[in-house]
C-alpha cells in the first residue's frame, strides 16, 4: 500500500510541476521576462510579478519533494549533508576565479592554475565540482566559461558574500553543536559557535572591529544579500502608507549604511531619515548619500539589542507614535512553502551560531514588545509576497 501511495504521490507531483511550469512560462512571456536559463547572459536576479512568485513557490516545493522521493534514504542524506559543498566557493571567491574568466569567452584550467599558483589537477577537481552545481561551464575539456551563476559572482559584493560565508560563517556553523553543549543556557554574545570557530573571546562585532579587512568583506556581503529580490527595498516602500505620516522624522534603527533610509527619502519628499547602527557599520556612510537627499538623511551610532532598543526609544515617544519593524518573522510550521521555511530556519540557526540569538515568530515578537514595555501595541504583521522579512506596525500607547 505504501508503494502505491508513493507512486500516486510522484504522479501528482509530476502533474503539478508540468502544469505550473506551463503557467509560469506564459506569465513570464506576458511580462516580457526571460525564461529561466543557466546561459551566461540569462537574467540572474529578476523581480517577478506576484503570480509568478506563487507559481515559483509551487514548482520549487514540488521539484524538491519529487527529487527527495525518488532518492534512497542514504542518497537523500548524502545530498543534504555534503561537507564539501562550500569548498569550491571558498576557492572561487578568495582566488577571484570568476573574474579571471572573460565575459563571452573562456580560459583554460592551466591558465587559472598559473594565475593562482596552484597545480592544474586541484584546480580542475575544484572547478568540475562547482560545475555540477551550475557554477561555470566546461564547453570543451579543460576550458572554463561562465554560466549566469558564475557571471553573477564577478560582482564584488556577491564575491564578498561567498568570502564571508566560507571564511567566517561556515566554520561557525560547524561549531554550533559544541558551543551549545559548552554553554547550554548562555545568551552572551561572546559564548557562541563563532567564538569557538575563530578561537576568540570577542563577539562578532568586536572581532570584525579588530579585523577591518574582514569587516569590509562582511559589509560587502550584506550589500549582496540586500540586493536580492527577497530584500528589495520596495517591500518597505510599498507595504506601508508612508505618505500618510506627513512631515516627520523616520528613525531607521539598525539601518546599516542607509539603503532603506535613502530610498524612503527619495520616494517621500516629506520624510527626514535618521539611520542608526553600530559605529563600524556607518563609518563614512554619509559620503554615499546621493546629493538629492543629503539634507534629509543623516546617521548616528546606536547599539542594537532588541529589548534595549525599544526601551531606549521610550523617552522620545509621543502618544500614538509608530514604530515600523522589518525583521524575519518565523512562520508556524507548514504555513509557508517548504523551500522558504527551510531557508528561514537555516537563517535562524545562523543567529544562534553568530550571536546566541534567534529569529522569532509573531507570538515571540509580541512577547518581546511586552517585555520591553506593556505600552507597545502590535497593530499588524504583514508578510509581503516575495519578501524574506515581515513588516510589523507597533504603536506607542502612552495613555495605558
Oligomer: single chain
Largest sheet: 3 strands, parallel
How many helices in DSSP terms?
Answer: 19
Order of helices and strands: HHHHHEHHEHHHHHHHEHEHEHEEHEHEE
Strand content: 5-15%
Sequence of strands across the biggest β-sheet: 3-4-5
CA gyration radius, whole angstroms:
23 Å
Q: Would you tell me the structural class of the helices and strands? A: mainly alpha
Q: State mean pLDDT (0 to 100 scale).
A: 91
Instruction: Kindly report how far apart the N and C termini lie.
Output: 61 Å
Low-confidence stretches: none
State the helical fraction. Answer: 40-55%
Give the overall shape. Answer: globular
Extended strand count: 10
Feature tags:
400 residues, mainly alpha, O-methyltransferase activity, O-methyltransferase domain-containing protein, COMT_C, three-stranded parallel sheet
Per-chain topology:
Blueprint (H helix, E strand, L loop, with lengths): L1 H29 L19 H21 L2 H9 L5 H9 L1 H4 L6 E2 H8 L3 H13 L10 E2 L3 H5 L3 H19 L1 H7 L10 H5 L6 H7 L1 H15 L7 H5 L10 E5 L5 H9 L4 E6 L1 H4 L14 E5 L4 H8 L8 E6 L1 E2 L7 H18 L4 E2 H11 L3 E7 L7 E7 L4
Parallel strand pairs: 3-4, 4-5, 7-8
Antiparallel strand pairs: 1-2, 6-10, 9-10
Helix pairs in contact: 1-2, 4-7, 4-9, 9-13, 12-13, 17-19
Mind explaining what this structure looks like?
It comes from Xylaria arbuscula. The chain has about 400 residues and is mainly α. It is built from 19 helices and ten strands. The strands form four sheets. It has a three-stranded parallel β-sheet. It has a three-stranded antiparallel β-sheet with strand order 6-10-9, covered by helices on one side. Helix 1 (about 1-30) runs antiparallel to helix 2 (about 50-70) and helix 4 (about 85-95) crosses helix 9 (about 155-175). The chain starts with a helix and ends with a strand. About 25% of the residues are buried. The model has no long low-confidence stretch (mean pLDDT about 90).
Amino acid at each position: 500500500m505504501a508503494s502505491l501511495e508513493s507512486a500516486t504521490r510522484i504522479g501528482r507531483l509530476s502533474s503539478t510541476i508540468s502544469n505550473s511550469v506551463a503557467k509560469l512560462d506564459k506569465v513570464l512571456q506576458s511580462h516580457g521576462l526571460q525564461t529561466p536559463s543557466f546561459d551566461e547572459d540569462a537574467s540572474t536576479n529578476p523581480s517577478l510579478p506576484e503570480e509568478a512568485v506563487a507559481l515559483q513557490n509551487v514548482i520549487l516545493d514540488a521539484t524538491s519533494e519529487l527529487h527527495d522521493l525518488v532518492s534512497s534514504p542514504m542518497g537523500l542524506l548524502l545530498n543534504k549533508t555534503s561537507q564539501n559543498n562550500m569548498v569550491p566557493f571558498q576557492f572561487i571567491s578568495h582566488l577571484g576565479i570568476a573574474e579571471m574568466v572573460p565575459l563571452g569567452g573562456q580560459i583554460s584550467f592551466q591558465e587559472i592554475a598559473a594565475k593562482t599558483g596552484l597545480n592544474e589537477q586541484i584546480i580542475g577537481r575544484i572547478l568540475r565540482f562547482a560545475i555540477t552545481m551550475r557554477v561555470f561551464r566546461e564547453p570543451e575539456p579543460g576550458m572554463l566559461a561562465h554560466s549566469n551563476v558564475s557571471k553573477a559572482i564577478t560582482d564584488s559584493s556577491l564575491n564578498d558574500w561567498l568570502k564571508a560565508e566560507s571564511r567566517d560563517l561556515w566554520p561557525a556553523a560547524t561549531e554550533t553543536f559544541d558551543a551549545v553543549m559548552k554553554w547550554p543556557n548562555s545568551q552572551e554574545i561572546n559564548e557562541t559557535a563563532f567564538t569557538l570557530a575563530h578561537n576568540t573571546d570577542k563577539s562578532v562585532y568586536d572581532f570584525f572591529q579588530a579585523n577591518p579587512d574582514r569587516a569590509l568583506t562582511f559589509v560587502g556581503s550584506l550589500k549582496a544579500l540586500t540586493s536580492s529580490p527577497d530584500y528589495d527595498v520596495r517591500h518597505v516602500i510599498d507595504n506601508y502608507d508612508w505618505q500618510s505620516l506627513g512631515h516627520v522624522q523616520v528613525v531607521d534603527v539598525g539601518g546599516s549604511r542607509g539603503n532603506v533610509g535613502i530610498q524612503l527619502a527619495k520616494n517621500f519628499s516629506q520624510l527626514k531619515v535618521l539611520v542608526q547602527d553600530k559605529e563600524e557599520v556607518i563609518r563614512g556612510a554619509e559620503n554615499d548619500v546621493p546629493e538629492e537627499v543629503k539634507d534629509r538623511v543623516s546617521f548616528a551610532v546606536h547599539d542594537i539589542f532588541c529589548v534595549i532598543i525599544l526601551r531606549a526609544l521610550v523617552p522620545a515617544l509621543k502618544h500614538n507614535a509608530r514604530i515600523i519593524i522589518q525583521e524575519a518573522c518565523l512562520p508556524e510550521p507548514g504555513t509557508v512553502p517548504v523551500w522558504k521555511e527551510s531557508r528561514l530556519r537555516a537563517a535562524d540557526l545562523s543567529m544562534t551560531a553568530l550571536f546566541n540569538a534567534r529569529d522569532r515568530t509573531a507570538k515571540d515578537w509580541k512577547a518581546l514588545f511586552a517585555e520591553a514595555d506593556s505600552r507597545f501595541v502590535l497593530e499588524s504583521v504583514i508578510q509581503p509576497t516575495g519578501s524574506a522579512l515581515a513588516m510589523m506596525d507597533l504603536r506607542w500607547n502612552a495613555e495605558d
